[in-house]
Write a structure and sequence with these properties.
Layout (H helix, E strand, L loop, with lengths): L5 H27 L2 H8 L3 H7 L3 H14 L12 H14 L13 H5 L3 H25 L6 H20 L6 H11 L17 E7 L5 E3 L4 E3 L5 E7 L6 H7 L5 E7 L3 H22 L8 E5 L4 H5 L10 E7 L2 E7 L3 H6 L12
Parallel strand pairs: 4-5, 5-6
Antiparallel strand pairs: 1-8, 2-3, 4-7, 7-8
Helix pairs in contact: 1-2, 1-4, 4-11, 5-8, 5-9, 5-11, 7-8, 7-11
């Protein structure tokens, strides 16, 4: 039998650690889980665990991200109207909750998110990005205005149902939550899209573009970044800025948000978890033609950002490129980069996707 390469050995150890950690968290809960016991379950050293994950919280987020990305489908028929789609979304969301008496593996996730500013601010942006994704899907079914505020309200209800199901078993009545989410499709809220008061300038360039294959967390599949459109490299403090590219880009353009972080081993698993939890339900609840054109790639290694000409990233990064016929033709950096790179020749928002 041939020996494993260093990369293969690292990947094998990472998989062993994740499996052992999932078992440990499920059995003992996050707070009582021990790195030494996880290492023992994986038949590895404590050092091998830390070589893959900087700490217990990062490992916890990685376990939850893997579970969210691999969650099975439960809704057979997507909705064709906004109300039906939101009802289907709620059913898919609630189907993941533990039965009465069971312990949810993610019961400590929110408390760990709010424990430090390091995780709070990125999580707020990730929730805003989730609302954008859901709002864009709703707009594909009812293209008569921005529906991101409606999406925010739906996610508030579903997140609240998840927390109450863990804290007060038996309290959440799933049928009522589904019915309420369906009615939220017709909620009348002030949701006018506001253009940015100022933006960074864009540069016209002519650069070759040979992108690597990327994993789109929204579709749960590999995607090519070679087609015409906008690619934005966004730190986790700027994740929601992807909407500016969507609103400014031509209706037929594809927009990809590449999420990066100054603390990728801790925060990119959090990003994967937050996006995958919604996206898995969204894919079940909405017909494919209504899936948002916005794609989300979580770049934990920074390799994709480097390929885009952004070798140094932080949580405040905002760099956007416009791709045309296999070339990078526009590049912008800083506040408003997503907007100006996506806009064709005028800086005015083009409105809502058709």
């Amino acid at each position: 039998m041939s020996r494993l390469s260093r990369a293969e050995s690292q990947e094998r150890n990472r998989a062993l650690v994740l499996t052992a950690a999932r078992e440990e968290f499920a059995e003992r809960g996050y707070r009582d889980a021990k790195i030494d016991l996880i290492a023992e379950r994986a038949d590895l050293t404590r050092g091998a665990v830390y070589s893959n994950f900087p700490g217990k919280r990062a490992l916890y987020f990685a376990v939850l991200a893997d579970l969210a990305e691999r969650a099975p489908s439960t809704v057979a028929q997507p909705g064709r109207t906004t109300g039906d789609a939101l009802a289907a979304l709620a059913r898919a969301w609630l189907a993941r909750l533990p039965a009465t008496g069971e312990v949810a593996l993610d019961r400590d996730a929110l408390s760990e998110v709010v424990a430090e500013e390091l995780t709070r601010q990125p999580y707020a942006q990730l929730m805003a990005l989730d609302a954008v994704l859901l709002g864009l899907a709703l707009e594909r079914l009812r293209p008569d205005g921005r529906l991101v505020r409606v999406a925010e309200t739906v996610l508030t209800m579903l997140q609240g149902a998840s927390r109450l199901a863990a804290a007060a078993p038996g309290f959440v009545e799933p049928f009522n939550v589904v019915a309420a989410c369906a009615q939220l499709a017709y909620l009348d809220v002030d949701d006018e899209w506001q253009a940015l008061p100022f933006t960074t300038p864009a540069r016209t360039v002519d650069e070759p573009w040979s992108p690597p294959v990327a994993w789109d967390s929204v579709r749960g599949a590999e995607v090519s970044l070679a087609e015409d459109g906008v690619v934005a490299v966004l730190g986790l403090h700027r994740a929601a800025a992807a909407e500016h590219a969507v609103r400014a880009a031509p209706a037929d353009a594809t927009v990809t948000a590449v999420l990066v972080s100054g603390a990728p081993r801790e925060l990119i698993p959090l990003a994967r978890m937050a996006v995958a939890e919604l996206a898995g339900c969204l894919r079940q609840a909405f017909p494919e033609y209504a899936w948002p054109k916005l794609r989300v790639v979580c770049d934990g290694t920074g390799k994709l950002a480097a390929a885009l000409g952004v070798p140094a990233v932080s949580d405040a990064t905002e760099v956007a490129l416009r791709i045309t016929r296999g070339r990078v033709v526009t590049r912008a950096e800083g506040y408003g980069a997503c907007h100006v790179a996506a806009a064709e020749h005028d800086p005015v928002s083009r409105g809502f996707p058709s």
